[in-house]
């Protein structure tokens, strides 16, 4: 790689707020910014609107994009109103970064899983920046390049989430995370912070099926894998996959896969 392809980390830190906080820079932050929400909630200006930012939201800002961040009382998934927001934030620039940014159309927000492999990159960059004496500043540069390329991979593996469909993806994530337990539409709506009717409408508009239809899809796919690979009894598979009634599970499974759970297990285990 040419030596003039610079990638410089200016600031890398972790913040956790329990008191209100606001930052407004209408002319932009003058450098590139990656901000990963790890805990709690806040609000940020995204595509011109102040939007709720949850854990797992990765925000990307170019140097000239207006920036506004506000941390105040928000309702958490338990229904409590409190100030609580944790995030990693990295300001960086350089000719390599300029070229990287232009490779793709970059949304301001990407919903990501807070995996250890992603968090360790942010963590290492913060640790490198905190070193009192650092004879190897290029280490930060290489960590930053890896993080940028990881963002590219996340973009390729996840659909772009816009303000118009973001709530639908929040609902989708809630379903996927809670499908193994029993929940009602009211639970989903309360968690997201919207009415049931609006949640139902936005989800159907984004994915072409109802919330409960998608929940059934997730539960049946979960049960299918457990029938094949786990030592659970079929009754245990049913219960652990979010069905509280084996008769109902048996009926919807046969309707979806054309055979009973027992027949499905026999056939697929013979192929293993």
Quickly describe the structure.
This protein has 272 residues and is α+β, with helices and mostly antiparallel strands. It contains ten helices and ten strands. Helix content is 46%, strand content 23%.
- What radius of gyration results from the CA coordinates? 22 Å
Main beta sheet: strand number and arrangement? Answer: 8 strands, antiparallel
| Class by SSE composition | alpha+beta
Distance between the termini: 47 Å
Outline: elongated
Protein name: AraC family transcriptional regulator of arabinose operon
Pfam family, one: AraC_binding
Keywords: DNA-binding, Transcription, Transcription regulation
InterPro entries: AraC-bd, Homeodomain-like_sf, HTH-like, HTH_AraC, HTH_AraC-typ_CS, Tscrpt_reg_AraC-type_HTH
Note the topology.
Layout: E1 8-17, E2 21-25, E3 32-46, E4 49-54, E5 57-61, E6 67-71, E7 74-75, E8 81-82, E9 85-93, H1 95-102, E10 109-111, H2 116-130, H3 138-157, H4 166-178, H5 185-192, H6 196-207, H7 211-229, H8 234-240, H9 246-257, H10 261-270
Antiparallel strand pairs: 1-9, 2-6, 3-4, 3-5, 3-6, 3-9, 5-10, 7-8
Helix pairs in contact: 2-3, 4-5, 4-6, 4-7, 7-10
Domain HTH araC/xylS-type: 169-267
InterPro entries: AraC-bd, Homeodomain-like_sf, HTH-like, HTH_AraC, HTH_AraC-typ_CS, Tscrpt_reg_AraC-type_HTH
Protein name: AraC family transcriptional regulator of arabinose operon
């Amino acid at each position: 790689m040419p030596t003039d392809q610079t990638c410089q980390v200016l600031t890398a830190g972790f913040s956790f707020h329990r008191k209100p906080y606001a930052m407004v820079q209408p002319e932009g932050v003058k450098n590139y910014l990656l901000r990963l929400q790890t805990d709690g909630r806040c609000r940020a200006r995204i595509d011109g609107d102040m939007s709720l930012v949850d854990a797992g939201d990765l925000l990307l800002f170019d140097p000239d994009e207006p920036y506004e961040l506000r941390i105040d009382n928000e309702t958490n998934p338990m229904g409590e109103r409190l100030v609580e927001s944790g995030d990693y934030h990295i300001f960086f620039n350089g000719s390599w970064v300029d070229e990287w940014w232009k490779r793709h159309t970059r949304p301001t927000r990407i919903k990501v899983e807070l995996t250890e492999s992603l968090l360790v990159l942010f963590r290492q960059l913060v640790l490198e920046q905190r070193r009192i004496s650092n004879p190897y500043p290029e280490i930060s540069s290489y960590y930053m390049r890896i993080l940028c390329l990881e963002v590219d991979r996340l973009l390729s593996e996840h659909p772009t989430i816009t303000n118009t469909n973001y709530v639908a993806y929040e609902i989708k994530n809630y379903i996927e995370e809670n499908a193994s337990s029993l929940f009602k539409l009211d639970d989903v709506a309360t968690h997201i912070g919207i009415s049931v009717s609006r949640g139902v409408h936005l989800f159907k508009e984004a994915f072409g099926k109802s919330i409960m239809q998608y929940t059934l899809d997730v539960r049946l796919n979960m049960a299918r894998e457990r029938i094949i690979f786990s030592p659970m009894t079929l009754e245990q598979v049913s219960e652990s996959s979010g069905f509280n009634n084996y008769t109902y599970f048996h009926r919807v499974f046969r309707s979806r896969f054309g055979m009973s759970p027992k027949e499905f297990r026999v056939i697929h285990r013979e192929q293993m």
